[in-house]
Amino acid sequence: MPHASVNGINIFYEIIGEDNNPTLVMTHGLGGHGRAYENLIPEFTKGYRLLLWDMRGHGQSDRPKAEAGVYTRSQHASDLAGLLESLNIQKAHIHGHSLGGLVAQQFVISYPEKTASLIIQDSSAEIKKEYVDGWDDRIQNVIDMGLEGIPVDYTRGWGKKFSDANKEYIDARHIESADRNDLFVYVEDMRISGTDLYENPLAPQLHEIKCPVLVICGEEDGTTPPGGHVRMHRAIDHSELVIIPLAGHFPNIETPEEYSTAILDFLDKVN
Questions:
Q1: Whether pLDDT at 93 is above 70
Q2: What is the dihedral of CA 63, 249, 110, 230, to 10 degrees?
Q3: Does a structural domain hold residue 217?
Q4: pLDDT by residue (tens digit) across 117-135?
Q5: Are 30 and 124 in contact (CB under 8 A)?
Q6: Whose CA is closest to 37, among 267, 257, 253, 219?
Q7: Does residue 182 form part of some domain?
Q8: Greatest alpha-carbon span in the chain
Q9: Contact 178, 148 (CB under 8 A)
């Protein structure tokens, strides 16, 4: 299976699609992996070369010991820059979901020359103090009880229609994530989404983003609510905003047709 040596570790990736098509990089969220977008491969590869990758500590990439500075949004962004360089990809469309959205924003700010466009999905650019406290409580719960101690939340992360019809799927996904992930890596990436984002918000830098941007989220996302996406959209010149009805934090799973249509319409306009 393909790995690239980047920043002293091995990063797992897959490239799917025609070599002469523009490259679309999909960046997963907390505890995820590149294959989170497997259901979208047939549609996205009709016109794009899809690059799926596992961030350090996730999936089939190396899992360096969780120490200070090893897991940060800038480090993840640097890994992506190194991966693109190793694959001789000069410029790509950069997508990021949730934690991956923080990484994607940081990547575009740090490496604008490598970015054709940015897609921010169900993510954020800043966080209020009361939400940081919630992240800290969740981190302590994971430390005390392990990843299996994270309660299944059918409403905060998922739209009601999908959740009501797919509780067994959500349960199985929750168990699989707990089994697959490293506790201490998970904790460090939770800090990126909580304390670090509060102390080092991306929002003041959003005006620096000059490439075309799509901000997309589920209307019923209780993890990163639509209001934050409206603020990101207003802060970024030449950005578009799509809010998908009946979807929560995972419109790529809950409403894949509406999700893929929005992304492909955006990409077709900016190519």
A1: yes
A2: -160
A3: yes
A4: 999 999 999 999 888 888 8
A5: no
A6: 253
A7: no
A8: 49
A9: yes
Residue 156 lies in a domain: no
Q: Domain range holding 22? A: 3-125+202-270
CATH label of the domain that carries residue 258: 3.40.50.1820
Residue 270, both tokens: 């900016």
φ/ψ (deg, to 5) at 71: -120, 100
* Tens-place pLDDT, residues 135-170: 888 899 889 989 987 888 898 899 999 999 999 999
Question: Is the overall model pTM greater than 0.90, yes or no?
Answer: yes
Total of domains in the chain:
1
- Residues 52/95, Cβ–Cβ less than 8 Å: no
Q: Which residues contact 51 (CB under 8 A, 6 or more apart)?
A: 13, 14, 15, 23, 24, 25, 26, 83, 87, 89, 92
Q: Match 């360089």 to its residue by tokens.
A: 85
Q: Is residue 188 included in any domain, yes or no?
A: no
